[in-house]
Amino acid sequence: MQGVNFERILGGVCAPEGFLASAVSCGIKGNGELDLALLYSELPAVAAGVFTTNELEAAPVTYSRKGIAEKAARAVVINSGNANSMTGKRGLADAEAMATAVEKDLSLSSGQVLVASTGPIGEYLPMEKVANGIKQAVAELSPGGNTDASKGIMTTDTYPKELAVEMEIAGNVVRMGAMAKGAGMIHPDLATMIVVITTDVELDADVMQDWLSKAVEWSFNRISVDGDQSTNDTVLMLANGAAFPEGHSLNGEEGELFFKALCWLTANLAMALVKDGEGATKFLRIVVNGARDDEEAVQVARSIANSNLVKCSFYGGIPNWGRIASAAGSAGVTLERGKIDIFIGESLVVSGGEPAGADTRDIEKLLKREEVEITLDLGLGSGSAYFLTTDLSTDYVKMNASEIT
């Protein structure tokens, strides 16, 4: 992180002052794994959130979307192993019951708890187990509970994902931390993912919502593993101002630093989600330059990232740039064939819309790498964008052909 004014630290969501976390196994998953996580701010906090655009959003999304409208929250409770999605009125009641149980056990006023769930769709939550788990999670809250919490929200993830940074603002050390889960059903807007971000900086709720939305657009909305969008996608952010007991409003320069750190945090978590994609053997970065504008660049990059033919060819190590060209042409963007250049790694494979005569042996060597970059120059303007994705492996098919908990 050389050249920036913030440093990576340990601590995840508990790195900022005044945040506690815990996780317990309450029997939702049935295999003894941690399946209920709790995050709590010891001080009042403002809240912001970004949610799935799936028309069949899960009950906890509906509940927390309303909660975010109030712009304040003290706690977030998250269960894994059950999405509480497509569960009707009972599901909505269960999401509210989870929040109410946390409010009761933490002596919080109504509306101070946000809820998220992740796991299989179409199953009712075992609410007696959940209620008991919440009591236990409240009792076990600690400033060192961040890693357990990040494990408690995992489903098919192979490892917990957490990050934290610190910086100096107005002479005070301030921190921002986060945890995330997600490995499959990853596709904008957002993914099958849960992300919680914390900070001890004092922020205006509307400003924080704007910054969070922008950071999400440039990170979590630029990743795809399988093109499927979840009903439960949730990104939440809490700011409690604990670093400034006397209060402090960020000036322009300080705000720019904080926003830069937020973007770094979300971008790196997004990359981690892709790299942990179900069954993935290759991490692919799609770069599109020379579009008429950034929006068209995103369209083309997304089309390539979501192409199963492209993803399968990279899994098989096949230097088939025709699939890349075909995916670009189906993006709904008007292109000019004679202006397009395509690179696979450092190899120019298409020049001016025609084969560039690249040595296929060189490309085959490139495709043995764990990380490969595909670059397109459309020759139409100054718009640019990137997308992160993975290959599509036989292990992915096997994992998703069986019941996943």
Short description:
The chain has 405 residues and is of the alpha+beta class. It is built from 11 helices and 17 strands.
Overall morphology: globular
Measured distance between first and last alpha carbons: 36 Å
Q: Helical proportion?
A: 25-40%
Report the C-alpha radius of gyration, rounded.
Answer: 22 Å
**Integer count of domains:** 2
- Major beta sheet summary: 7 strands, mixed
Q: Which labels suit this protein?
A:
25% strand, 405 residues, 32% helix, L-amino peptidase D-ALA esterase/amidase, six-stranded mixed β-sheet, 2 domains, seven-stranded mixed β-sheet, Ubiquitin-like (UB roll), 11 helices, alpha+beta, 17 strands
What do you see in this structure?
The protein has 405 residues and is α+β, with helices and mostly antiparallel strands. It has 2 domains: 6-275, L-amino peptidase D-ALA esterase/amidase; 283-400, ArgJ beta chain, C-terminal domain (Ubiquitin-like (UB roll), Roll), CATH 3.10.20. It has helices spanning 59-68, 88-105, 127-139, 146-152, 205-217, 252-275, 294-305, 308-316, 321-329, 360-366, 394-400; strands at 6-8, 19-24, 36-41, 46-51, 75-80, 113-118, 161-169, 172-181, 194-199, 223-224, 234-239, 283-291, 341-344, 347-351, 354-355, 371-377, 383-390. The strands form 3 sheets. It has a 7-stranded mixed β-sheet with strand order 10-17-12-16-13-14-15, with helices on both faces. Strands 1-7-8-9-11-4 form a 6-stranded mixed β-sheet, sandwiched between helices. The longest helix is centred in the middle third of the chain and has 24 residues, at 252-275. The protein starts with 5 loop residues before the first strand and ends in a 5-residue tail after the last helix. 53% of the residues are buried. Residues 185-191 have low confidence and may be disordered.
